[in-house]
């Protein structure tokens, strides 16, 4: 079953450059991950500090392998430290 993951982040204007660098590193790793289908990043129109990534995966198991990937965890920890809060995740079936 294909799944879509909605990843919500809030970022302060002064942290956008640092976050962009980390997200590019994360995206590079994601492209190598088995089961990854696609992803897109959206900026919220009415709240400029909020963005949403919609990521498509072949299965929940593929997503879970990615979530537990030590390299991903390292980068995600850096992202959350910059944001000052944890990234929000929601999983939906397609």
Report on this model:
This protein is of the alpha+beta class. The protein has one domain: Alpha-Beta Plaits (2-Layer Sandwich). A 4-stranded antiparallel beta sheet has the order 2-3-1-4. Helix 1 runs antiparallel to helix 3. It is globular, with a radius of gyration of 13 Å. The termini are close together. The model has no long low-confidence stretch (mean pLDDT 94).
Concise synopsis of the structure shown:
The protein is an alpha+beta fold and 94 residues long.
Per-chain topology:
Layout: E1 3-10, H1 16-31, E2 36-43, E3 50-57, H2 60-67, H3 70-83, E4 88-93
Antiparallel strand pairs: 1-3, 1-4, 2-3
Strands across the major sheet, in which order? 2-3-1-4
The overall average pLDDT, rounded, is 94
Number of helices in the DSSP assignment: 3
From the coordinates shown, what is the CATH architecture? 2-Layer Sandwich
Kindly give the count of domains: 1
Describe this protein with a few key phrases.
Alpha-Beta Plaits; 94 residues; globular; alpha+beta; four-stranded antiparallel sheet
């Amino acid at each position: 079953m294909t799944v879509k993951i909605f990843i919500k982040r809030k970022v302060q204007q002064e942290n956008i450059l640092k976050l962009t660098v980390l997200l590019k590193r994360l995206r590079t790793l994601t492209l190598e991950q088995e089961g990854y289908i696609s992803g897109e990043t959206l900026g919220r129109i009415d709240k400029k500090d909020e963005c949403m990534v919609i990521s498509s995966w072949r299965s929940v198991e593929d997503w879970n392998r990615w979530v537990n990937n030590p390299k991903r965890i390292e980068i995600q920890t850096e992202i959350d430290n910059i944001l000052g809060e944890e990234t929000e995740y929601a999983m939906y079936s397609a």
